[in-house]
Amino acid sequence: MLTGNAYRMLVFLCANRNATLSQIGEFLDWAKEYTENHLRQYKYKINTIIGENIIDYKNSVYSIVGEVKNADSFNSNNRNTDLLRQDNLQSRKSNQQILPLVKFTKIPAIIAIVFYSCHFLIGHTDIIPFLG
Q1: DSSP state of 20
Q2: Assessment of whether the complete model's pTM goes beyond 0.70
Q3: Which residues pair with 55 in a beta bridge?
Q4: Integer distance in angstroms from the first to the last C-alpha of the chain?
Q5: What tens-digit pLDDT sequence spans the chain (132 residues)?
Q6: 47: Cβ–Cβ under 8 A, 6 or more apart, which residues?
Q7: Within 13 Å of residue 70, how many CA atoms lie on the same side as its CB?
Q8: What angle (nearest 5°) sits at the alpha carbon of residue 55, between those of residues 52 and 58?
């Protein structure tokens, strides 16, 4: 999903067709100094999410490639929706939902208790270094 300054940069370029670093930076936040690295990251994010190279950088000027049109409606199947899948998250319907119980076997615990008890009773703690 395109949000934040990358989205604002795309809106600005759609309205103005092209702009320099200082023009875009002033539009985004006049109090902050934007660098070429900031705008390069926004350009990359926009091009990646849109799925085509729609922003070009040449001679210190960012510009929109192609024609800008107003859309009355759009078909959601033609968009890049990888980040918008709603079936990735599932939540419980109730906080009182019973979770499946995890069953443990008793045999490994019994073996460990017998093993450690024997070593304490016999006094051979040199076999297990952290007990000595």
Answers
A1: E
A2: no
A3: 64
A4: 58
A5: 788 899 999 989 988 999 999 999 898 887 888 899 999 999 999 999 988 899 999 999 999 998 888 777 656 555 555 554 444 444 455 556 666 666 667 788 788 888 777 766 676 555 555 554
A6: 53, 54, 55
A7: 2
A8: 130
